[in-house]
Write a structure and sequence with these properties.
16 helices; mainly alpha
């Protein structure tokens, strides 16, 4: 088993310069911009770690690992355009720096390159890898539409929200893990278990993102705190608050959602979240999902010591403050 540091080093040696010193520069400079942002590289790392877990050749996992990171960043470029976001990881978003049209095109070419790297694998594995990846891509696009639809509704349930974030966030983590396992020759049962681990880890991961957007520190998170509140995004916190608030508190929350002063809106909604116990409830839900993820990983049929690095990564993701 190779260490996390070794896997990341292999990845950075091959893709550290992002492989995008191409023309026309007007297309590829925006790609280099987002791919050079400081990110957690969770998806490529999960793919490589999963391949290594099942005794695979990590060198063969590098190209699809890069494909996962390309696809993820493609979705970020388009999400930022749809959300009209100015900052990503502490620096200007692609469309803010290069314009909306260029941002759309840069995202499109990243999607194409994701497929280019994804299928640079042993030929016999290509059909199944493409099946898994295409299913995942469709679910992510469906999740994005759900997210946008929810902005117009007040009656979004927790179940609906969890399905939306499963599609928007979890499935790509799970896909990365399953592809890594598949490339290593893992059986279907173990592929299913490692996929389930990714789904529940992703749910905890996204709820943590919601939490940090409201209760994190701007310097660590790399963006303005309260952005989701300003957009009235149906996060786990807001959905919980809308279901728990009654009478005066519900009227106050509804009024705040229409409030025009940004700082007052953020402060007021955060105060209500605390008063309603939403902050504590969200922390509890994250812990439950993380525990379920751990159970799925523990059930994978390999030696316990081989799963230690993935468990540590899951713990780091769960406890992060950025």
């Amino acid at each position: 088993m190779q260490s996390t540091e070794t896997l990341l080093s292999l990845y950075e040696q091959k893709f550290g310069n992002n492989n995008f010193s191409l023309n026309p520069s007007g297309l590829y400079e925006p790609v280099k911009h987002i791919m050079s942002m400081k990110g957690k590289k969770i998806r490529p790392l999960l793919l490589m770690m999963s391949s290594d877990l099942f005794g695979g050749n990590v060198e063969q996992a590098l190209n699809p690992a890069f494909a996962m990171e390309l696809f993820h960043n493609f979705t970020l470029v388009h999400d930022d355009i749809m959300d009209n976001a100015d900052i990503r990881r502490g620096i200007p978003t692609v469309h803010k720096l290069f314009g909306i049209n260029t941002g759309i095109l840069a995202g499109d070419v990243m999607l194409a390159y994701a497929y280019k790297y994804l299928i640079d694998i042993p030929v016999q594995t290509i059909p199944e890898v493409l099946r898994i990846f295409n299913k995942t891509a469709i679910e992510i696009f469906e999740g994005q539409q759900m997210d946008m639809d929810f902005e117009k509704r007040e009656d979004v349930s927790e179940t609906e929200y969890l399905k939306m974030i499963e599609y928007k966030t979890s499935v790509l983590l799970a896909c990365s893990l399953q592809i890594g396992a598949l490339l290593a020759g893992a059986n279907n049962a173990n592929q299913k278990k490692i996929y389930d681990f990714g789904i529940n880890l992703g749910l905890a991961f996204q709820i943590k993102d919601d939490y940090l957007d409201t209760f994190g520190e701007s310097e660590k998170v790399g963006k303005r705190i309260g952005g989701d509140i300003l957009q009235n995004k149906k996060t786990y916190l807001l959905i919980s608050a809308l279901h728990k608030a009654k009478g005066k508190q519900l009227n106050e929350l509804r009024a705040l959602l229409q409030h025009e002063n940004e700082e007052e809106k953020i402060a007021g909604v955060k105060n209500l979240f605390n008063a309603l116990g939403v902050k504590v409830d969200t922390e509890k839900r994250m812990d439950e999902l993380y525990a379920t993820a751990r159970e799925s990983l523990q059930s994978v049929d390999v030696k316990a010591e081989q799963k230690a690095r993935l468990l540590k990564l899951a713990q780091d993701v769960h406890r992060r403050d950025f």
